[in-house]
Each structure stands twice: as C-alpha cells, then as structure tokens.
Amino acid sequence: MTANVAGYLLQLLAASWLGVEGYSEFASLLAVQLLCAVPALAMQNVVAREVVRGASLRAVRAMMWRCAALVAAVAVVLIPVVAVVLDVGVWAAAAALGAAPALVILSGEQGILQGGNHFRALATVLAMAGTARVAPALLALALGGGAAGALWAGAAGIVGAAIVAGRIARSTTESADPPTDDSGDAGNSREPMTKTVGVLPVLRAVQVQAALMALSSVDLIVVRIVLDEVDASRYSLGTIATKIAFWLPQAVGVVLYPRMAQPTHSARAIRDALSVLSVIGVVAVLGAALAAPLAPLFAGADYAPIQGMLWLFALHGAILAVLQGALLSAIAVERTALAAVTWIGLAVEVTLMLAFARTIESLIGTAVSVAAVTTTIVAAVVLRAARTHPAPADSVLH
Questions:
Q1: The dihedral of CA 7, 9, 13, 19: what is its sign?
Q2: Quick one: which of 10, 23, 62, 352 could link to 233 by a disulfide (CB 3.0–4.6 Å)?
Q3: CB 270 within 8 A of CB 386
Q4: 371: left (phi over 0), alpha (psi -120 to 50) or beta
C-alpha cells in the first residue's frame, strides 16, 4: 500500500508541476517503464512458484541474474525505438528503460520471500522499494529535472532497493523455520532440490505479464498519437484512477499466489481471489465517483473536464485487476497459453483506438469495453479449468 500511495503521489505532483503541456510525456514514459517491468513481474511469480516447489535459492538467484542480463541487452536496443515512437529525447527514453535490469533482481528477491510465505519481510521490501523509487524522482522534479531527470533518479533508487532487498531476503530465509501449510503438513519444504531453474519458465510467464501490462498501458501510448497535448495530459491524469483501482488489491494476489501454485489448494485459491478482487473493484469505482469533485483541487483547474469520467477510469482498472488475478492463476499452474486471449484483446483495442477514438470519452470507453470482454472470457476459462481439470499433484516436480 505504501508503494502504491507513493506512486500516485508522484503522478499527481508531476501533473501539477509539469502542467498539461508536459505531463503526457512523463505519463507515456511511465507507461513504457511499466511495460519494461513485465520481466520483473514475471520473475517474481516464477521465483515464488519455484520456491514453493522446493528449488534451491542458489539456482533461483542464478536464473535471476541471467534474466537481468538479457533484459539489459533488450533495453539498449529499444531506446531509439521508444524515442522515435513517443517523439521524446534519447536521454528520456533511456531513463524509462534504465531501471529494467534492477527491477528483475528486486522482483526476484520479492519472489523468494513470497514463495517462502515471509509476508512481513515482503511487505517491508515492497514499502521500501516504492519509497526508494518515488522519493528521488519527486526531488528531481522539484529541482526542475523534468521527466528524464525524475526517471533517472527513480532508477537509481530502484538499484539501491534491489541491494537492500537481497540482504533482507537472505537474512530472512537463513533464519526462518520451514513453513507449513494450513493442514499442518510440510507444504513448502526447505529441503533444496538438485535441479536447474531455467529461463524458459520465465519467458512463458513474461508473455502472460506482457499481455496484461500492454493491455493496461497501451492507451497511454496511443493517446499521444490520436489526441492533442492538452487532452492527452487530461487523459493521462485520469488513468491515475485506473492505476489505483488496478493496484489497490495487489495484496490479494500476493498472498494467495503460493496457494494457487499448490495443487491441493489451487482451485479454492483461484475462486477466492477472483471473488475478493471483484468486490474491491466495486468499492474502488464507487470511491472514484464520490471523490471526483476533488480532482481539480489536487491537479489544477485544467483537469476539471475529466472529473465526471473518473469512475469510468476506475472501472477500467477494476476490471484489469480481476484479469490480473485470473492470469496469475494461469502462471501458478503453468497454463500460460491462456494469455493468447489477452493478446487478441490488445490487438482489438489498439485497432479500434487508432481507427475511431478521437476524444477522451471514446478512448476510455473503448478501453473499458475491450477489457470487460477479455476479462470475462479469461475468468470463465480459468474457473472452468479449476473446477474440472485441477492441476495434477505430480506437476509440482517438473
């Protein structure tokens, strides 16, 4: 929660300090940075699953560093592409991509804590990482560093957070007793398995996370293509409500994911996760509708035209949060082919936006409609599979 609040504060202050003329560039670069965090999100999920299944921490960390090297190489190649597509400077594009390798390592350490059910230590790391990422960025913005300066400062904070997270994870796992599941049996034995943890499982999880993050962020990239600078900035501010509704229930997936990865608990954990996410989503939408009149007070009068649509932005995030829970369960039981539905939804959304959306209303309406259809299909498939085809017990040792 601390990390999320810090992130929302950064975007609100950036919208105020950069103004409607400059905020869309910053928001678009943040969207690129979110897409670059996809390997990191996949890393945390795969590491948590492998730890649940008894992989040695040495093998897990070796895989983390191999993936970080691959991400660094890809980030270098993508810098000129991002600069051209978003019409920003190379330095700004490099700032958006620069934190990607450190995010992989940071998320891997978080996965070790998550898979080991060390949720208190994980909460500490998450709060520390969010603060370390946002505080330097806020300072850079306050000193006039602009979008690029803020992103570079945030990247430096992430590197520091990754180092501290590694120390916390090592001290926690070295001192912890072997955890047990609710039945009293050793559900997550600490006896290390003599197996290599390869990069391929991460790549499979990456394409699942990439589909989700692309669907949740592509509108911020398209908006700079189809709208003018002022409306693009207004739309970008509205997506703060989307992000709040999307990330608010993040703890649900974090806590239930280790149980999703255990065949005996998977079906029940999936049902519980989707139910809780749906309820939280309803609350988030109602909260956005009630808080809408306050938006111009925090961000400025220039953003008043979007206040009546904030509930719609929140609905977009709430739907995506349910989709995230469904896709997490697919990663947990290694049914990642389901991500194809999300990729199709992404293609449909981009096509519709580029062809027909020329206003803020039409853009967010398209985003909500596509997300709703995609989430309905994915959730229905996941629930049906959990009910009729539970993950076999022997898939724990693969």
A1: positive
A2: 23
A3: yes
A4: alpha
